[in-house]
Amino acid sequence: MKKALITGITGQDGAYLSELLLSKGYEVHGIKRRSSLFNTDRIDHLYQDPHESKVNLKLHYGDLSDSTNLIRIIQEVKPDEIYNLGAMSHVKVSFDTPEYTANADGIGTLRILEAVRILGIEKNVKIYQASTSELYGLVQAVPQSETTPFYPRSPYAVAKLYAYWITVNYREAYGMFACNGILFNHESPLRGETFVTRKITRGAARIALGLQDKLYLGNLDAQRDWGHAKDYVEAMWLILQQETPEDYVIATGVTTPVREFVRMTFAELGIELAFEGEGADEIGRVAKCTNPEYQLEVGKEVVAVDKRYFRPTEVDLLIGDPTKSKTKLGWVPKYDLAALVKDMIHADVALFKRDQYLQKGGHQTMNYYEL
Ligand code: NDP
Ligand code: GDR
């Protein structure tokens, strides 16, 4: 039985990757952070009582800022594969916490590589590093491939640049099987609530159900290459199953503006939007509502821009070239953007029908406007 160790197991990708590896018969170990509230929602359905026999999912307390902890866990688990997904992964927040981001996302990767080297198991372990399309940053060329130059535009991307190169360096210096997956944006119903796609699907669901008036967003002109996280974790696994360690771009090859994601999301609920104005003054109004379930007046302003969500330096356009991953890995994504939007918005409508029910019963529910 193969053993995998996943940092960031409680995140979006960690949850889907755990599911995938368990379905392939792996024993999965994950590092979770101590927090004052439970933080394992996304993997609770996979949880097995450690008192049972034949437990295939095991969690260890730890943190990427703690070398001794990482060395001990790796020594105990003796994994065949390590997936380093743990990170402070929010680009905008990295401008507020640049030093912490550098520590967790940059040096954290070094700590994993060094732990493997210190333990002398560098020839027995394969390592996947969660690299990102944010490395491309300020557009140098499109579509972006494995050979496109990097120009990071946030403390997050700069930290990930270090992680990318230290992974390459350890591969070349010590012959380690260490690979970068340069993944473009991937989303799902498990996506963190403050990333733009999930913020949009949650906002649209709540507006349709009468739980929220308006959705405030930042730069609607940014363009992203969005795929489904379920497809992308499959690529992570494939990267570690190859004969030689290499870096791969994982993307759909299709790019879409944020505004269009908003339009598609509302349209999936039978709500047609019309946009007017520009920049910080742009708004989106209901142009038509064909779904009798939702009581939305034509002309109602449901989308507005709030400058607080703008970034000091923005990444305007990402579009990936997945040729290498398609030909060498045989990676074939199952979801296109329309299927992704459908999956996310219907999951959020189902989620917020619970809030609607509670509110009808006179109970207080949370206010999500500040996301
Ligand atoms: P999430 O933000 O959903 O998950 C991040 C995970 O990292 C969480 O489990 C979080 O724990 C954990 N974590 C945060 N800080 C630390 C730390 N100091 N030590 C240990 N664990 C930590 O991210 P995703 O699942 O979306 O992304 C996975 C990885 O892939 C990240 O490295 C991200 O930067 C990268 N990436 C993501 C892309 C995407 O579009 N999703 C695209 C390209 C790269 P907790 O739950 O306690 O917060
Ligand atoms: P990104 O994802 O920065 O690409 O990083 P995010 O969804 O946060 O932003 C995408 C684009 O949408 C614009 N935007 C907004 N973003 C947020 N979060 N909130 C808003 O209200 C809003 N309005 C417009 C942003 O300016 C941006 O242009 C994600 C993360 O998962 C990273 O960890 C990962 O490395 C990259 O994707 C690939």
From TrEMBL:
- Biological process according to GO: 'de novo' GDP-L-fucose biosynthetic process
Sum up the protein's function in the record's words.
Catalyzes the conversion of GDP-D-mannose to GDP-4-dehydro-6-deoxy-D-mannose.
A Pfam family the protein falls into: GDP_Man_Dehyd
Which organism encodes this protein? Flexibacter flexilis DSM 6793
Query: What CDD domains does the entry give?
Result: GDP_MD_SDR_e
Question: Which EC number(s) are documented for this chain?
Answer: 4.2.1.47
Picking any one GO molecular function of the record gives: GDP-mannose 4,6-dehydratase activity
Q: Which NCBIfam families has this protein been placed in?
A: gmd
Q: InterPro entries this protein is in?
A: GDP_Man_deHydtase (IPR006368), NAD(P)-bd_dom (IPR016040), NAD(P)-bd_dom_sf (IPR036291)
What family is reported? Belongs to the NAD(P)-dependent epimerase/dehydratase family. GDP-mannose 4,6-dehydratase subfamily.
Instruction: Give the protein's recorded name.
Output: GDP-mannose 4,6-dehydratase
